[in-house]
## 1
Amino acid sequence: MGGIDIIFKVAGIGIISIVISLIFEQVGRKDFAWAATVIGAVLVFGVALLRFKELLDEILTVFRLW
Amino acid sequence: MEMGSLLAIAIIATVLTVLVRSHRPEIAIWLSVVTGLIIVGRILPLINFIVRTLADITSGTRAESVYFTTVLKVIGIAYLAGFGAEVCRDAGERATAGKLELAGKVIILMTALPVLIAVLETVARFAK
C-alpha cells in the first residue's frame, strides 16, 4: 500500500514551512515567520494524525485489542 | 520478501527526519512516528497470517482459544507501549516514556489476571 507518500507529504510541509519562515526572518517580519512555523506545525499535525489513526486501528484490529 | 522496500522507506524517512529535526523538532517527531507505523503497517498482513495459523492450530477446546487471544492481547499491548515509549524517548521525554511503560505493564497484568486465576484453580483442583 506504498505508504511512503505520507512521509513525503509530512516532510514537504515541514521543509516548506521552514523555508517560508526563514524568508520572512530575512525580510525582517518576525511575526509572519512565526505564523508560518505554527501553520506548518498544525498542517503536519493534521496530516500525520489522520494516517496515525488509520494505522493504529489496523494494529488494534490485528492484535484483537478492540 | 519486501525487505527492500522497507529498507528504502526507513532510510529515506530517517534522512528527511534528520533534515527537518535541526529546524523543526516537532515535525521530526511526527515523521518518525509515521515512519514507524508505516513499516509496521506493511508487515501487518504477515502478522495477521501468523496469528490466524496459530489460532487454527490451537482451535481445540474453547479454553485454549481464550488463552491464545490473551497472549495475543498481551503481545499487542507490549508492542504499543514499547512503541510509544521509544517515540517519547526519541523526543527527549524520558519521564513520559517511563509512565507509558508502567501503564503498559499494569494493563498487561490486568489482561493476564483471568488466565492466572484459571491456572491456579486447576492446580488447586489437582492438589485436593
## 2
Amino acid sequence: MTPVQRTVTKTLLALVAMVGFTIALVPLYDVFCQVTGLNGRAASQPQAFASGEVDESRYVTVQFITRKGSGLPWRLEALDSQIRVHPGQAYEVDFVFSNYGKSAYRGRAVPSVSPGEASLYLRKVTCFCFQEQRLEAGERVQLPLVFQLSHDLPESVHTVTLAYTLYPVLDRPAASDDETISQGGDA
Amino acid sequence: MAPKLPLKARLEHSENVAGGTAVQDHDAHHSSGPLRWLLTTNHKEIGTLYLIFSLTMFLIGGAMALVIRLELFQPGLQLVRPEFFNQMTTMHGLIMVFGAVMPGFVGLANWMVPLQIGAPDMALPRLNNFSFWLLPVAFLLLLSTLLMPGGGPNFGWTFYAPLSTTYAPPSTTFFILAMHMAGISSILGAINIIATILNLRAPGMRLMDMTLFVWTWLITAFLLIAVMPVLAGVITMMLLDINFGTSFFNAAGGGDPVLFQHLFWFFGHPEVYIMILPAFGIISVIVPAFARKPLFGYASMVYATASIAILSFLVWAHHMFSVGLPLIAELFFMYTTMLIAVPTGVKVFNWIATLFRGSITFETPMLFALAFIVLFTIGGFSGLMLAIAPADFQYHDTYFVVAHFHYVLVPGAVFSIMAAVYYWLPKWTGHYPDECLGRWHFWLSVIGVNLLFFPMHFAGLAGMPRRIPDYALQFADFNMASSIGGFLFGFSQLLFVWVVIKCVRGGVTAPAKAWDGATDLEWSVPSPAPLHTFETPPDLRRVAG
C-alpha cells in the first residue's frame, strides 16, 4: 500500500465508524431518555405500584392536557383537568374519547410528561395510552388512567403536567407499532 | 513555531519549474476541446471550477435573499405569497451554506493547498474531478424542486421534523437526494485534502511548517469526515419516515421529533466551524503578508483551531435551549459554548498582535481581512449573548439569531473568501485585480453589510421572529434599513464579478511574488501559475547544523 492508500483507508474507516455511530445514536437516545427522563417520555408499558408509605404531608398538582394531531376527527377530554395528589397514593382519572367523524377511525393517545424529570416518578398502572383505540362514528368511550407518583418524587417538583396528543393510526402494516400495541391496560 | 523557509531556495526552485521540460510534456497530452473541463484532473482547473460554481451559487442565493428583503421592505404582504417566501428563506440558506461557502473554500483548497505544501497536484485527482461534478448535479436537482408541484423545500435550512417529514411538500425526496450528493462531494473532497496534506508535503516540510490555511483545512477536513455521515444519516431517516412508514421522528408512531434536532445539530454545529475555520486560515495568511511581520503565535493558532474543532462536538444543544432540556444540560451546553470563546479570542488576539507595529498597507485583500476581524468579532460577541441559556429564551428564533449568524457568515466567511480571491488573483491570472474598483467593492460591501445586518439585532431584541413574510408595524424602520443595505450589498457584488472578469482578461502584470510581504511557497512559482507546478518537489530540508 502506498502512503496515500493508507491514509485513504484510515479516513474511510473513520467514515464507516461515524456512519455506525449515527445509526447507534437512535437507540442510544432512547436509552438515554429512559434513564434520565429527558423529554418527558412516559413509559409505554404498565408499571407495578411502587410500595412505600404515602406522603400525606405533601401535595403535588397534576394537570391533564389533551390535544389532537391533525387528521383525526376526535375529541379527548379529561374529566378532571387538575387534581391534587399525595406522592405514593394511587389515583384514577377518567378520560372521554369521542369520535365526531362520519366513519370509524383508529387512534392513539401519546403521552408526554413535563417537567421531564417527573416522568421517572410517574407510574401508570392502567392507561388507555398503552394501546390504540377504535371508535365507530359518533361513539363515545370513557377510559380510565390509574397512576401513582412515587413517594421519592424530588421536592422541587410541585406541579406535574401530563399531556396526551391524539394521533390517527394509519391503515398501513403496523410493523413499527408492534411493541406499543401491547397487552395490559384493560381499556 | 514556523520557521520561515529560506528565500533563496525557493527562488531557485521557481526558475527550475518555469524552465523545466516536464511542464511541456504534460501540457501536450492535456485534453482540449469541449470535454476539457468535464474531464480535467488538474487541481488548479478543478479549483477554478469550484470557485466559479461557488460564485454562481452565491449570486443565485443572493437573488433569493433579495426577494426576501424586497418582501420585508414594508410590513404587509406585497410581492410574494408566504409559501413562496418560505421556499426562498429555505433555499437561500441551503444554497449559501452548501453551494456557495463550502465549495468556495474547497475551491481555494484545491488551488492553494498543493501550491502551499509544494505538491504537484491533489493526491487523488480523478476523485477530485468526481467530487466537483457531483455539485452542479446536486444543486440543479435542488433548484428544480422550485418548479415541482407543491414547490421546493419550505421548512427552513435546518429542515426540522415534522415540518420536513409529515408536513413537507412532495419534492422533499429530491431535496434529500440533492443533499446526499452534496454530502458525498464534501466527504470525497475532505478525504482528498487529508490525503494530500498528510502525504504530499515537500521534503522537509513538517506539519508545524505548514501555513495556517493548510492547517485549518486539514482540521476542517477531519470535521467533514466526522459529521457529514451524521447529516447523511438524518436525511436517510427522513427519507424512511416520508416514504417507508418508519417513525424515527414521528411521535404518533413512537418516535421523537426532538431526536431530529439533536442529530441535526450534532452535524450542524461542527458544520458551522467547517464554514469558518478555513476563513481563519485565510486571514492568518493575509494579515502577516500586509503587516510585513510573521504571524504572531503560530503554534497557538494551530492549537486554537484544533480546540475549536474538538469543542464543536460538545455544544450542539445550545441551538435547542428552548426545547425543554433538563437544567443540567442547559448549564453544560452554556458553559461549553462559552468555552469556545477562549480559543477564538486567542485567534483574534494573535491577529491584532500581528498587526501591532507592522508596516501595514491597505490593499483590497487586507481591507477585507481587517473588516473580517472586526465584523466577525461582532458576530462572535452576539454568539456569546445567545450562549447564555436564560437569555436565549428571549432571543431564540428572533432576528437577533439571524443577525448573529449572518455576521459570522457574511462579513466572516464570505469576506474571507473575497479577501482570498483578491489576494490570490495575481497568482491565478498573472494580473493584479483593479485596485480602485476593488476598493469601491470593499467599501460598498462593508457599508451595505452593516446596514443590512446591524438593524436586525435591534429588530430581534424587540421580538421580531425570523422566517416570517409579514411583521408588526414597530419593526418597519429596522426592516426598511436592512432592505436598503441588502440591495446595496447585493448589487455591489456585481462589481466583484466585474473585477474578477477584468482581472482574468488583463491588468497590471504581477510578478511571481505579487505582494511585498508574502512569504509562502505559492509565491515562488511564476504568475500566472503554470498548469503543472512542483513536478520536482522543492527541497525544504534545512542544511545540517
